[in-house]
Amino acid sequence: MGTTGDVTGMPTERAISPAPDRADHGFSRKQRIVRSADYQRIFSGGRRNAGRYQVLWVAEGPTEVPRVGVVASKRTFRRAVDRARAKRLLREAFRLNRDHLARHTDCVLVARRAILDAKLGDVERDLHAAARRCRALRKNGDRT
User: Fold this and answer.
1) Rounded CA separation 107/131 (Å)
2) pLDDT tens figures, 22-41
3) Of 3.30.1330.40, 3.90.1150.10, 3.40.50.280, 3.30.230.10, which CATH number belongs to 27-133?
């Protein structure tokens, strides 16, 4: 046959690529705030609004797409599993609402203790309300 296969006997050159509609479900490096200088810029010069489950910091960003950074401190959440859950909820709420956020927006979400008792829908609503109060939502006609 001429093609070498993997352990299962399937040809290796026929690798299945991920579906194109799944490309927007994750976070690429362009959609995350990773540099300490970016966090400092947002904390020092951004707008802040406290919701029930998070504190949202918003500043103008350098990229076309909204970016997010998530903070869950050890002081607030002693157990690592609680910090991980808080960050997971905040990332997912942002992912589901990022199409509503204005372009060139950098957001830092700081988890509050109450998030541990919250459901994803509650966190989503709280994030959307905080973004509205920070004037970080897109205008009605702004779809690109």
Assistant:
1) 9
2) 445 677 778 888 889 999 99
3) 3.30.230.10
